[in-house]
Write a structure and sequence with these properties.
about 350 residues; alpha/beta; 8-stranded parallel β-barrel; 11 helices; about 35% helix; binds phosphoenolpyruvate; binds manganese (II) ion
Amino acid sequence: MVIVMKMGASDAQVQGVVREVEAAGFRPFINPGVERKVIAVLGEVDIDKAELADQFSELSGVERVQLISEPFKLSSRSYHPEDRVVDVKGVRIGATERVVIMAGPCSIESRSQVLEVAHAVKESGARMLRGGAFKPRTSPHSFQGLGEEGLELLAEAREETGLPVVTEVMDAHDVPLVARYSDMLQIGARNMQNFTLLKRAGESNHPVLLKRGMGSKIKELLMAAEYILAEGNHQLVLCERGITTFEDSTRNTTDINAVPVLKHASHLPVLVDPSHATGSWRYVPAVARAGVAAGADGLLIEVHNDPAHAKSDGPQSLKPEKFAALMDEIRRVAEALGRTL
Ligand code: PEP
Ligand code: MN
């Protein structure tokens, strides 16, 4: 249930509603930063919700009360009707006119590698740099990432290029460390339901990029988002990165439907990751264009200066020249829809 206050409702009226919500055994959660105050009523109490809604709608300063049938509340559009804009060091994600491209290597491998790729993607118009220092690999025998040394190199690439950086945090204990070096925390597909990690990322108040689990429903992604929002962190962006299906021509299957479904159900910005969704550089451009056409707020794309020798995800990484050509295509798709890069 959400309680929508009248425009210009006073603090005393808001506090009056908060007291009534608490008295009924629920937890009130006030949406910060919107003109019209909206109070989410959270908690599981065995009570007639419709009757309670009627009761709340009589309170002073209340415009209307809306029952939300979905289990996700804070990520729902009923709670926050406007598109949420997440600001990462001046890069605004979710502002409809802009398509934000984040690009870079799957893993940070060396100073020369990350600097070379960072300069190349910036040159082509990427607004953020990506690169993993803590890598969630299927095999323990595969390259696991450079850890803190990788974070240092990523931070150096940010200093050189001015591009804000996003990098994965795999362990709840590492949230402060990764937040210190980066501008945005990535929570990977394999950790989408690591609830301790979600809570710590929420508490950090650092911008978060939350990727959909390969076996997770859209609703489960939104419930995972709920964990971060419930800690008061609204700097949150969702990412569709392909799901596991019976189809094995590609690494995953891009659920392009997820873009309009998420945009309808939630106020949070949505990215598409065509690299992990396809697993092959050959298919990345088509799916990248489809993502923008479907209404994604941005793309996350893997680029490597020497994909044949990459320590992870070489087969799906674009060479800088191919990335530059793709950026031109994406720009044209965006412009056709009245948007820009
Ligand atoms: C990545 O971005 O390199 C990554 C590991 O992604 P995902 O969690 O989507 O597999
Ligand atoms: Mn990768």
